[in-house]
Amino acid sequence: MARFIFITGGVVSSLGKGLASAALGALLQARGYSVRLRKLDPYLNVDPGTMSPFEHGEVFVTDDGAETDLDLGHYERFTGVPARKTDSISSGRIYTNVLEKERRGDYLGKTIQVIPHVTNEIKDFISIGEDEVDFMLCEIGGTVGDIEGLPFFEAIRQFAQDKPRGECIFMHLTLLPYIKASGELKTKPTQHSVKELRSIGLAPDILVCRSEGPIPKKEREKLALFCNVRPDSVIAAQDLKSIYEAPLAYHREGLDQAVLDAFGIAPAPKPNLDRWEDVADRIYNPEGEVKVAIVGKYTQLEDAYKSIAEALTHGGMSNRVKVKVEWVDAELFDTEDAAPHLQGFHAILVPGGFGERGTEGKIKAAQYARENNVPYLGICLGMQMAVIEAARNVAGIAEAGSEEFDHEAGKKRFEPVVYHLKEWVQGNHKVSRKADDDKGGTMRLGAYDATLAEDSLVSKVYGSSHIEERHRHRYEVDIKYREKLEACGLNFTGMSPDGRLPEIVEWKDHPWFIGVQFHPELKSKPFAPHPLFDDFVRAAKDTSRLV
Ligand code: GLN
Questions:
Q1: E strand or H helix at 455
Q2: Chain segment 284-301, per-residue pLDDT in tens
């Protein structure tokens, strides 16, 4: 049976709770334990799939097709454990489940209440698969005191009561603000936050405090005294130059030791941190630099492309270079020539996206990369735009476009080289979609296989002719145009196993131009960079040597 670690946050949001949870997971693994990480989000959306990336950052997709919070990306990047549908839940999903049960009559005429019906639903979720791992880490989204969060805090309180003593601990992440004028780290907000937690029956065992510098002995003792934790369970989380130093930094601060102490595990198994030392060495000691342009729509909020930025960093680590990313707003090219904005980059990446805004600019970026032999990686929408560029400018299909944009505009303007996918095969059954389906959860989601053409660049890059990658799209390049495009040199080098859905295209006479219908960035890890990102950065490095 798993031991449970509940992670909550106080004082302000965005303190890096997800990262702290992920780093702790990695440290427990380094001591030989198996872990699973879970996120419980108090918002009322059923899942983040329909939330704007501007508001909520990227949507992380799991192998089994769940659209989840971007913290699950941190969990996977630090632990390498593939997340599942059952690792992410929101109030919206919990209430939907409860209401469906009520409609079915499962509650036998009872009055449905937050306690016990909603809290039971949360507790059932927390315990899924509890016999599979040594430690289950459950992060509660938001901040203590939020109205939406209350049922979750109540549920974890009950959960710990239901379990035998010593099987659950609570870790609380707060902020120690530094007041320059007096040169002091202030503990009062943390004290208030813990007081708030205790008023709902939760007492933290570990305090993780974000602070600009180390926590002096006096403040540590004060926190321990007023918050009722042991002084060595007050852990400083100082700002780091790279998130990938977090496991080492938390280990230096004694987080993993404090957690094992709280469970009474003694003697604690020794950690093996070689993996994280190598990662830190690669990130802090690059031997060169490459400049990559990401031409996208959501460039104001870097979290919107979180996994792509991380995967590029991983590719840099394997090539021992620093990848300097610049975000270029695709809409700029609606009115301006792309060349002056893209000169000087060693590679261009066009990421995924939704809607027509900015797409003409992405098409121009693909054209620039093709004509100037600049390495190009097109992801999902970035692949679709590269295909439309080829159709318009090389194959002579002047009206080529995507049905997505016609649907949005409510009128037909384009020849649908990219069309609305209505039917596909998943495992051994067929999935069907209609034009007026709900928006939530109806895309082609999750892991699907693809077969790679022999002698293609991608089969060399992957070192295999069979791959499995994660998808999240509603539209698809139409196979009907294959012959025409291949005759021009744009080869369809990756296909779904039934040969019907184009998964990868690449330009024949180009040093490195690949478009993929899936999201390779979701599977990249610092200790196992994704082959496409590894080779894309290698190609960028080659370009940087030419200039
Ligand atoms: N909007 C496109 C589609 O639905 C691309 C999706 C994406 O880039 N993730 O097919």
A1: none
A2: 999 999 999 999 886 667
CA of 476 to the centre of ligand 1 (A): 8
Could you tell me if the CB of 362 is within 6 A of ligand 1? no
Give the residue, by CA position, lying nearest to ligand 1 atom 5. 381
346 in active site: no
Is residue 117 flagged as an active site residue? no
SS3 per residue for 137-181 = EEEECCCCCCCCCHHHHHHHHHHHHHCCCCCEEEEEEEECCEECC
Q: Do 333 and 293 contact (CB within 8 A), yes or no? A: no
SS3 (DSSP) at 267: coil
In terms of Cα–Cα distance, which of 53, 49, 51, 52 is closest to 61?
Answer: 49
Q: Atom of ligand 1 at shortest distance to CA of 353?
A: 8
| Tens digit of each residue's pLDDT (9 = 90 or more) over 120-154 | 999 999 999 999 999 999 999 999 989 999 999 99
pLDDT value at residue 438: 77
Distance CA 361, CA 73 (A): 29
The residue whose C-alpha atom lies closest to atom 9 belonging to ligand 1 is 352
Residue 148 CB coordination number (10 Å): 15
Cα 312 from Cα 526, distance rounded (Å): 10
Is 138 one of the annotated active-site residues of the chain? no
Catalytic site residue from 380, 476, 503, 510: 380
**Does the pTM of the predicted model rise above 0.85?**
yes
Which of 354, 420, 448, 478 has most ligand 1 atoms within 8 Å of CB, for mutation?
354
